[in-house]
Design brief:
Helix content: 25-40%
Distance between the termini: 39 Å
Strand content: 5-15%
CATH architecture: Irregular
Structural class: alpha+beta
Radius of gyration: 18 Å
Length: 75
């Protein structure tokens, strides 16, 4: 009797999928940090800048791609 070897499924890490967005050119974007609480202390300018998302650092891209699984397939 032959046994077929199956490769385990690549599953998307759901909390990572909620935190990162993929742009049209396949770049990763994330929200800025320090937005969750203590907003009264922060200047109006810093709060306004926190609304914008930023590109993920090149160092982290490979790790996040792996966590996103099939959602982030290049090519």
């Amino acid at each position: 009797m032959e046994r077929s070897i199956t490769v385990p499924k690549m599953k998307t890490h759901k909390s990572t999928a909620k935190r990162f967005k993929i742009t049209g050119k396949r770049k990763l974007r994330r929200l800025k940090q320090k937005r969750s609480h203590l907003r009264r202390k922060k200047s109006k300018r810093s709060k306004r800048q926190m609304r914008q998302d930023v590109e993920v650092a090149p160092v982290d891209v490979k790790r996040i791609e792996r966590l996103l699984g099939k959602r982030f397939r290049r090519g």
